[in-house]
Design goal:
The complex is a heterodimer. Chain A has helices at 2-26, 43-53, 76-88, 101-114, 126-129, 141-154, 168-180, 202-210, 226-234, 250-256, 283-297, 307-324, 332-344; strands spanning 30-36, 59-60, 63-71, 94-97, 118-120, 134-136, 159-165, 187-194, 215-219, 240-243, 264-267, 348-349, 354-355, 371-376, 379-383. By secondary structure, chain A is α/β, with parallel strands linked by helices. Chain B is mainly α. Classes of the chains: A alpha/beta, B mainly alpha.
Amino acid sequence: MKNRFFAGMAPVAVLSLSLSLFASSALADITIGVTISSTGPGAALGIPLKNSVELWPAEVGGEKLKVIVLDDAGDPSVATTNARRFVNDDKVDVIVGSALTPASIAVAGVAGETSTPHLSCSPVPPTISKGKWTFVMPQDAGLIARNLFAKMKADGVKTVGYIGFSDSYGDLWMGQFKAIGEQYGLKVVADERYARPDTSVSGQVLKLVAARPDAVFVGASGTGAALPQIGLRERGFAGKIYQTHGAVTFDFLRIAGKAADNTIFASGPAMAPEALPDTAETKAEGMAYVTAYEKRFGPGTRTQFGPHINDAMAILKKAIPVALKKAKPGTPEFRAALRDAIETGGPFPASQGVFNFKADDHLGLDDRAVVLFTAKNGKFEITK
Amino acid sequence: MIATFLIQDGVTNGAIYALLGLALVLLFSVTRVIFIPQGEFVAYGALTLALLDGGKVPATTSLLVCFGAIAFLFDLWSMRRGTDIRTFLRSLALNLVLPGVIYGITIVLAPLDLPSVAKALLTILIITPMGVYVYRIAYRPLADASVLVLLIASVGVHLAMMGLGLVFFGAEGLRAEPLADDNYTIGALMVSAQSLCIYGATIAIIVGLYMFFERTLLGKALRATAVNRLGARLVGVRTHLTGVTAFTLAAAIGAVSGVLIGPITTIYYDTGFLIGLKGFVAAIIGGLASFPITAIAAIGVGLVESFSSFFASSYKEVIVFGLIIPVLIWLSLSGGFHEEE
């Protein structure tokens, strides 16, 4: 009985297997591998990215898109496995991801080794963004820092207390202070660290307040950035507080409540495309993305991170047709042509900025990719 | 002046760690389980309270129903060789009716703007039965396994509960409303009503546990199981019953800790683990056996944490978890700590 069942099933299995082989080899679809941290410590960043992939179009340049999304849990070794799977088994034409820096570095390694274009959705260190095959979607820390520091200078800030995550994100911003802080006349008088799951930052906050800085700079992301914000206001710190673009989420405002008022945030324009002037190059893409995203996932669900996925597609939409003229998808020639098209085909107006890559600049963004917000009554308002 | 703030902060956190440490010692001594997911009960408790504050029905209620249903299936499986109607009805009541009733109560009460104490009690009511089901699903089939197997099962339960937390609560943190909003000034100290609640609840639970172990038959049965499992069985203590009781107590303590800590910080689906680990440091210092030493050590952990966050914030976790090393060296040198088998 059992045997007969299997005997009956075998041809079906062979047929379906050969059908699927046929399908993947005969139709030259464009295959995109996306590895995202939708669980683990980067889930708050990864989930909006994963959601945004759902908004991608079904075809680009007349070719069908085949998108494979895998979860890497923010773990570099899983990200490496995912990237290898994309290249070896799925023969992808481009890899997108990941949401966390360590995982993106891992993906960039595989991309460089296998000559596959890679669009990173998290900032990466300069050694990685110099790589031939990797392009970076988010604003790099230097760009954001220059804008925030200029704002601090304009506000008359001379001494700064720093508090940030005790990880590479926290080090990143402290590094900016060390590198270019002096140019803006900023002196760091306290350097404190905490971890996102900490239950209290009272010790660090007391030390900050005791150092009497003009302003406090918080190098943290998501709702984790709200902990020192609340702590500082509870201890009666009256100076200005500056937050990075990692903290620009509605969850932050919800958690911090009144304590968030008058805080300055750097952000990408995609958080508030409505408030941009009609002349802004980022307005059209930003409006389209935010409208589609909030229609699907509910009002007030937009984030700083999701647009990077949209921007990756905005770039691909322009670059793929160029590459298609040179080679067929699924071949090394197409991957090389796509890489060249991304590097030289700019400018690409997208939701978070206008990308204009060059051979020696795979960050591609300029000041159009940064806006400054002030939090007022539970809302972000654009500020000058 | 700064020192008083730091001491106050350390004692507040230490009190929470003390509750967790006590729950860990209780579970280990009665069931030999090193219960890593204790922190998850805290996170579930805090997140449930935060959602109730928002007038929403917390996902933990449907999770509770699922847990109950799975536990019921486990019971059915173990009853497959025939059973009497009373066992069946008891299982039905405990695993299906109880979570159903709690689900109903929550749906009715959640949209009403309850006083915060009622929300806290509702949270504890939702979380506590989870201990029963976690025991039934993960640990009861392994009741006679070695400590190592139970520890590995704990890691599995921890990962499963954390994953469920991510699915049900999302990746972003939540913060609950405080039970009481007032602040009191005592000399130079400003004491918030919430931290008074924490001290009060911790002391009440410690006293309650003491009374339970000293005065009630069930408590004495738990102690007997803790001293010698086989011996307790021989004199007629039902070790499954003591196991269930210990897990229920642990879940309740976890829920209370969650209700207490939810309003003073932002809680994420994965915060519980770190809080639980700090309770674990205290429990280790107490040799996983002594309640009073664990409680005192927990306050010590809180103080060390708050002072190190002031003087060397980058090395805070290193200092806190480094505490465990000299203790382990001392315990292993003095040879006072032996595994049961």
